[in-house]
Amino acid sequence: xxxxxxxxxxxxxxxxxxxxxxxxxxxxxxxxxxxxxxxxxxxxxxxxxxxxxxxxxxxxxxxxxxxxxxxxxxxxxxxxxxxxxxxxxxxxxxxxxxxxxxxxxxxxxxxxxxxxxxxxxxxxxxxxxxxxxxxxxxxxxxxxxxxxxxxxxxxxxxxxxxxxxxxxxxxxxxxxxxxxxxxxxxxxxxxxxxxxxxxxxxxxxxxxxxxxxxxxxxxxxxxxxxxxxxxxxxxxxxxxxxxxxxxxxxxxxxxxxxxxxxxxxxxxxxxxxxxxxxxxxxxxxxxxxxxxxxxxxxxxxxxxxxxxxxxxxxxxxxxxxxxxxxxxxxxxxxxxxxxxxxxxxxxxxxxxxxxxxxxxxxxxxxxxxxxxxxxxxxxxxxxxxxxxxxxxxxxxxxxxxxxxxxxxxxxxxxxxxxxxxxxxxxxxxxxxxxxxxxxxxxxxxxxxxxxxxxxxxxxxxxxxxxxxxxxxxxxxxxxxxxxxxxxxxxxxxxxxxxxxxxxxxxxxxxxxxxxxxxxxxxxxxxxxxxxxxxxxxxxxxxxxxxxxxxxxxxxxxxxxxxxxxxxxxxxxxxxxxxxxxxxxxxxxxxxxxxxxxxxxxxxxxxxxxxxxxxxxxxxxxxxxxxxxxxxxxxxxxxxxxxxxxxxxxxxxxxxxxxxxxxxxxxxxxxxxxxxxxxxxxxxxxxxxxxxxxxxxxxxxxxxxxxxxxxxxxxxxxxxxxxxxxxxxxxxxxxxxxxxxxxxxxxxxxx
Length: 750
Prior knowledge:
Elements: H1 2-13, H2 22-43, H3 58-73, H4 82-93, H5 102-109, H6 113-121, E1 132-134, H7 139-155, E2 161-167, H8 169-174, H9 178-189, E3 195-201, H10 205-209, E4 223-227, E5 240-243, E6 254-258, E7 273-276, E8 285-290, H11 295-301, E9 309-314, E10 326-327, E11 333-338, H12 345-349, E12 352-353, E13 359-364, H13 372-382, E14 388-391, H14 398-407, E15 413-417, H15 421-426, E16 443-448, H16 460-469, E17 488-493, H17 496-513, H18 520-537, H19 550-564, H20 574-578, H21 581-589, H22 599-602, H23 604-621, E18 626-632, E19 635-640, H24 650-656, H25 681-694, H26 708-722, H27 726-736, H28 743-749
Parallel strand pairs: 1-2, 2-3, 3-4, 4-6, 5-7, 6-8, 8-9, 9-11, 10-12, 11-13, 13-14, 14-15, 15-16, 16-17
Antiparallel strand pairs: 17-19, 18-19
Helix pairs in contact: 1-2, 2-3, 4-6, 7-9, 13-14, 18-19, 18-21, 19-23, 21-23, 26-27
């Protein structure tokens, strides 16, 4: 009778996560005590959860399993009150930043009826619906988005909402699922009074035609992000989009928008401008990437006293306020980057007073340049001390530049453009001086642009003296006093060849004074390898004839053999890193299938990865006291190693030893920028997708037919020249003998 009641209690408890009743607890405890006595008699020791199955005789394992089951049913987690369980669910579903994990929420709702009801009863868990991303017309998926959104809206009660809505322009223009898309938009609009953080990437017409009713009904909206598709919108008849539905949002503090490439054929049909109307005076943070609008002027003219971050990037900029003095007491970050710099920029800077400024970045790609005198006047007038300074200019005297550095001793990151010898000498650090220049400088970035199509070479002696003054004596034991060792110097050149020439000029004196001089043969091979890897293995595009040019494939194979035969056990490997060979091999390793000529035969990508692993110990061995990193064409950095192991720094392994991760390494600091005027994110994503599609389709003609009469002879000749195995030679000849075979099939068979 007791055994039957025990089984019934267990069966009842296994159906749910409800806590056991007093009678069930007493019954199970009595059963557990008897089972544990039986277990101890058989095994010879008391039961514990640390006991492993292989430590228990076969006859006692069933008893062990039974004890564990009953102990689990008596676990305290079943007795946790619903209030505490809801709090635990919040820690699981919401991370430290408040971001939502829908997967964990679905798992919690699938455990038991009690857990499901507890999760549903906690409205906070349902305030962040899954991102709605409609890139293609798939009505079933769109319906699922709609149903899931309504579920979140119902279960979140009246709490504020955070959501993401992405509707690709091509999906909307197709028109077959517009009704379902509009159902999602209308569901969100009906709850606009609950919006707190919103991210939109929808056609620009949505704001005026589908969302105009939200104006004046956004009492909680605090953060807004607006993105656009690359050339996804057609230019309006009047030449401008005017979006004013967010103008009345009393709590809006942060705005981020990107509309620079939104308009289709905008350069052919004239610049179509997108104008936003926001409550400018109350904004605290604005990040704008526009083709050209009046947002910058509107913001400053409203004098937002709480503004702390202003990042404005644009192709052109409207009229700047130049007459009324502007004081922004809390502005700490000012980044103004404009391709066509307006003539009134200098007059505008003379009106600004920014007492809290820490990060100043002013860059342009046309005249007039901002001379050092105007920056110096801004710093003096504001009474601020900068921590990050970025100036895309070399216009000004060394005296003004030195005064800027004197007034900002806390600068940790500095970006300068084409500095002359006097500017570089002004950066030389004298630790014994009572007022050393930039004692906290960690990262220095140098931009060298072409002038009238001609690249310049920096003064190698001055550059070397400046670098040595900030690194020697700090490498092994950087002091924690007033001086900080320089950790990284970034070089951004328009011309990759000139960059490598600059690196050679820097390294030549070091190599002459070094005991481990590079053998001339290795130096010649490294120089040739950089050119060969760049032109034959890793260009973004290959002519079609290269994919069927077997002589070219053999030359590439012989070159790879030369690299594989390098013996670094008794040679210094620094020349390989200086010439960016590991970086180029890493690029080759990550190339998609079908994008490297001859790869199906000679496995160039696999061999490149294997070569990186083979060289890695020697690259680590020779990385003291500094190591060169090549991030892209015309972009390199030199980093100083403060300990004896590169393995302790994963970022060095990714960037210096051949792994070309697409993500930007955060340790590089803010100023490591390849070039400001980059394609928008949508263009880059689209390009990567296009490349991914090419991975399975080598760019060779599909209708290239090999003559059947010469196919067999060609197959034997191929086998002889490539020294293939007899099996591969037979399969190649057999494949080539097929009537109507295509080149793509030949590659696959090889």
